[in-house]
Design a protein that fits this description.
- Helix 4 links the parallel strand 2 and strand 3.
- A 6-stranded mixed beta sheet has the order 3-2-1-4-6-5, sandwiched between helices.
- The protein contains 14 helices and 6 strands.
- Helix 3 runs parallel beside helix 4, helix 3 crosses helix 10 and helix 11 crosses helix 14.
- Bound molecules: zinc ion (ZN).
- The site of zinc ion has 9 residues, from helix 1.
């Protein structure tokens, strides 16, 4: 397999072309945020926070997986910006035990409320089972993440927005790395029309397997009819702050976060990730984290060699089998 000379995208990545220097079209066409641009976004963000502080309740609901990026985001929101945070964790049935311990310790230490939300495992099993077996999403969606991750994130985004609307919380935060989401969306007003379109991507294919049992996890007509002024602003501050994995790990470890020993190298919280990656690589011949890691490498926050190591790494088959057994999936090998 050949890889771009600049980032880590392989020649199997959809739509990729290389110039004579071996640099891919995504590197040539993706603008890298300048320091000035980052500073502008930071200023906008800080102004927004002052405007949105909520005297009557929580200031922000954070999608909190207990992993390193969302823990670092929690640290920024509480320590740097002194916000009242509701840390929302979606328990998909595969959160590592160490990640759960991290969630309890970090929310206590940082003074955030922890909200653990766990759908019945039978429902998750149905949903992930379908995502693992069939191609239910558009190819474009699957360029960026595995079918299983896309499913889980769909639930998280819908549930967190439902939580913000029902508790009147003005901000929704994510710990997206600079490779997962562009700086242009780092501060973004939500609205019912876009939400209705985006939740269809995940909800509609799953309705066929889970029917009405799925409905409580997505926004319904009543939620979507909430007046515009009550819709929160989405923020993902890691897009405009300095992103360095080593520094992030050092900072959160200094306050008691412990790296789980049982997750795969691309995740610091989820035991389903190895199976998700394995299936994606079998089906599409590229790593589902390739897009994200390419973005981090391009932005200068990770050495290309380190990124290449991540996208070339094969899954630990013990972990793949562990998740497959829990989901009741037969897989070759
Ligand atoms: Zn490239």
């Amino acid at each position: 397999m050949n890889y771009c000379a600049k980032c880590v995208l392989p020649d199997t990545f959809p739509g990729i072309t290389f110039d004579e220097g071996g640099v891919c079209n995504y590197c040539r066409n993706t603008p890298i945020p300048t320091e000035e641009e980052k500073h502008e976004h930071l200023q906008r963000f800080e102004e927004l926070i002052e405007k949105k502080r909520n005297p009557k309740g929580f200031d922000v609901v954070l999608a909190y997986s207990g992993g390193k990026d969302s823990t670092y985001t929690l640290m920024m929101l509480t320590r740097t910006y002194k916000l009242k945070v509701l840390a929302f964790t979606f328990d998909n049935g595969f959160i590592s035990e160490q990640a759960k311990v991290n969630i309890h310790i970090m929310t206590d230490t940082l003074g955030a409320a922890s909200f653990m939300f766990r759908p019945p495992f039978g429902l998750m099993k149905q949903v992930f089972g379908l995502a693992a077996k069939e191609t239910i999403y558009s190819p474009k969606t699957l360029d960026r993440a595995s079918s299983i991750c896309t499913t889980c994130i769909g639930f998280v985004k819908a549930m967190i927005l439902k939580t913000a609307l029902s508790y009147h919380i003005p901000l929704v935060a994510y710990g997206w790395s600079p490779g997962q989401a562009p700086i242009a969306s780092a501060v973004m007003q939500t609205n019912p029309r876009l939400q209705s379109i985006s939740q269809r991507t995940v909800r509609d294919p799953l309705l066929q397997v889970a029917g009405d049992w799925l409905k409580p996890y997505f926004l319904n007509e009543e939620d979507l009819a909430t007046p515009q002024e009550r819709w929160p602003v989405n923020i993902h501050p890691l897009a405009f702050t300095k992103y360095d994995e080593e520094v992030i790990l050092a900072k959160i470890q200094a306050i008691g976060w412990v790296k789980p020993a049982d997750t795969d190298p691309n995740s610091t919280n989820c035991l389903l990730n190895a199976l998700a990656n394995y299936i994606h690589r079998q089906r599409f011949s590229f790593h589902p984290y390739a897009w994200e890691i390419a973005g981090i490498v391009r932005s200068g926050s990770m050495a290309r060699e380190e990124g290449l190591g991540k996208v070339c790494q094969e899954e630990d088959m013990t972990m793949v089998r562990y998740a497959a057994d829990l989901l009741g999936i037969d897989f070759p090998g």
